[in-house]
Amino acid sequence: MIRFENLTKVYRGIKAVDDLSLRIPPGTIFGLIGPNGAGKTTTIKMMAGVLRPTRGRIYINGLDIAKEPSKVKRIIGFIPDRPFLYEKLSGFEFLRFKAGLYGMKGNRLDERILDLLNLFELTEWADELIESYSHGMKQRLIIAASMIHEPKVIIVDEPMVGLDPKGANLVKGIFREWAGEGATVFLSTHMLALAQEVCQQIAIVDKGRIVASGTSEDLRKQAGVEGDLERIFLEITRGVATSENV
Prior knowledge:
Blueprint: E1 2-11, E2 14-24, E3 29-33, H1 40-47, E4 55-60, E5 63-64, H2 69-73, E6 76-79, H3 91-101, H4 107-119, H5 135-146, E7 153-157, H6 165-180, E8 184-188, H7 192-198, E9 201-206, E10 209-214, H8 216-223, H9 229-245
Parallel strand pairs: 3-8, 3-9, 6-7, 7-8
Antiparallel strand pairs: 1-2, 1-4, 4-5, 9-10
């Protein structure tokens, strides 16, 4: 479970994230969408412990990330929008390196790595240097690495960047399977079609604030329009801009 309580981040007097409160139950794929500069990546970085909130609290599976950051980091998998890879390692070696950060070792670890390489269709490239991977293969490897320790929560910033349609479909299926096993998947994306397709719950943020949240049907009712998520999103954010200019 993920819970925000009045989460706020201020940069030089500007509120990048403004009093966010959310509760996301286990087994949910949750999407955070919004215009550029809405506060999505800042929120993601606070969840992952990269940034400290100015005010407010973040709880992951009941743990306060400010008070117990090490425990929280052991139960989350974080995939930033610009992940870093050691390209002189092979895919297998990179996964073993990531596992070592969580104290994982032994025969069970090798089985886990092989299972992930198979799941992400990277088995035949397991012993090749990462520098020889395509962009999409690197993205799949990063997602595999985030799952090496079987986290309870996966936090993803723009998960489909660089993936071809086959790779994107594979990753969407894995997220669904992971959520079906009780994990929470929190993703931030500009791809509204992706959010509509895979997310059970969605929040729209604008200027650091949540302006609408719920299922796609809930958002449709709040917007007062029919159509896909793109039309709903444009209507809601247009309404926010109009109200602020009145």
